[in-house]
Amino acid sequence: MTDLLIKRVDGDADLQGLKDWQHVHNVVVPPFHLPLDAVRERAVRNHMEVAYVGDVLVGCSTVRPPEGDEAVVTVIARVLAEHRRKGLGEQLYARGLERARESGAGVIETLVLESNQDGLRFALKHGFVEVERYVLPGLTIPEIALRLS
């Protein structure tokens, strides 16, 4: 497994981290393109990290805090296509899962675009099952919500 350098994105104190997270997000899920201001806002409410191999950006992750009566925590790990199948997603996911459990998760979910077959295979392989499939207004590609079983 390749060693990752993983850094927390710390709001305005880390402009490069914000931009790197934004880049990975926008490449992996282009229908949900986020401007930098939206990334800043997400960094305040979510635990966000960026991952590098050496000085090369390879991925990012998001752990949303517990919500609702079930304390649902969403864990999302994204790896740029050219860096997949090297164990990097495994490392990002394991770290996100640990963070979710530390935050008091009752239920763990993830989100994957239907067009991201690598991401969908990864989620299913790790015990997630589909709970909902929907298309947001103005978009054409379904997003799939999956829950860890």
Automatic annotation (TrEMBL):
Transmembrane residue ranges: none
Record GO terms (molecular function): acyltransferase activity, transferring groups other than amino-acyl groups
Coiled coil stretches, renumbered: none
Domain spans labelled N-acetyltransferase: 4-149
Keywords: Acyltransferase, Transferase
PANTHER family membership: AMINOALKYLPHOSPHONATE N-ACETYLTRANSFERASE-RELATED-RELATED
Protein name per the record: GNAT family N-acetyltransferase
